[in-house]
Write a structure and sequence with these properties.
Number of strands: 7
CATH topology: SH3 type barrels
Radius of gyration: 15 Å
Strand content: 25-35%
CATH class: Mainly Beta
CATH architecture: Roll
Order of helices and strands: EEEEHEEEH
Shape: globular
Structural class: mainly beta
Number of helices: 2
Largest sheet: 7 strands, antiparallel
Number of domains: 1
Distance between the termini: 24 Å
């Protein structure tokens, strides 16, 4: 695995570009690059002393792909808020545990969208209002935050 420097790892509430693993193969990078929301970051150390960051992220998808937008686990980022956090369309981040994955902060998982010139891995960050909505989603799910 080609780890990024742990010092470059995203922060909680950052939106990053990721090959999010599929449900069918949860321990491998997925086939498509998509926006995901970072919900936890931790430092890992291998037996040989190699340090690397582990990022837990929530699946993001366009609102057209969601049947029920008002699910308690869905954090909706409407179109009017998208550009400020590096998104190009309304997006839903699904915060339930089934739609979260822990991945190495590595080239295999985190890559930029090929169609956007000069794009960074970290697209943007949730603002204070969006973070409040995030916390409400977690509360409704009966989950505690932070995860670690």
């Amino acid at each position: 695995m080609k780890f990024y420097d742990p010092k470059t790892a995203p922060n909680v509430f950052d939106v990053v570009w990721c090959k999010f693993p599929t449900r069918e193969v949860p321990d491998q990078p997925g086939p498509w690059v998509r926006a995901v929301l970072v919900v936890d970051v931790g430092l890992m150390v291998d037996a040989d002393g190699t340090e690397w960051a582990a990022v837990t992220a929530a699946y993001g998808t366009g609102t057209d792909n969601i049947k029920k937008l008002d699910e308690p686990s869905n954090l909706l980022i409407p179109r009017r808020e998208c550009r400020a956090i590096g998104l190009h369309k309304s997006t839903v981040f699904q915060l339930d545990e089934q739609n979260q994955r822990r991945m190495a902060w590595a080239e295999e998982y985190f890559v930029t969208q090929g169609y956007v010139k000069n794009q960074q891995l970290i697209a943007g960050s949730l603002n204070a209002d969006q973070q409040k909505r995030f916390h409400k989603c977690f509360s409704k799910l009966g989950r505690t935050f932070p995860l670690s």
